[in-house]
Specification:
mainly alpha; 5 helices
């Protein structure tokens, strides 16, 4: 919630949707790969810090993506764009769940 509250006014002021989305995705990727080395150490505090940073970097990806998609499809109503994105997400989740359950 903290990073979503910070990125909202930043995006409203600068309109740098693609830059902000790329920065959050790169930060999330770096933190995810750092977990490979942190988790085996068994340090509770280090794992807690890395997981907190992961949550801070991962949180604003969805709101930034929705805002960016609304800006890309400007004449279309925002509710329609959000509905289509969420519908595509649900279909993708269903397909992945079906495939992974059949593999298990």
């Amino acid at each position: 919630m903290i990073t979503e509250l910070l990125t909202g006014p930043y995006l409203d002021r600068t309109k740098k949707y693609l830059f902000t989305l790329r920065a959050t995705l790169i930060a999330t990727t770096i933190i995810t790969f750092s977990m490979i080395f942190v988790i085996p150490t068994g340090s509770y505090w280090l794992c807690s810090i890395v997981m907190s940073l992961y949550g801070l970097s991962f949180g604003p990806i969805l709101p930034i993506g929705f805002d960016f998609s609304i800006q890309l499809t400007h004449p279309v109503q925002p509710a329609l764009v959000n509905g289509l994105l969420q519908g595509a997400e649900q279909i993708g989740e269903f397909l992945l769940a079906t495939v992974f359950v059949s593999l298990a």
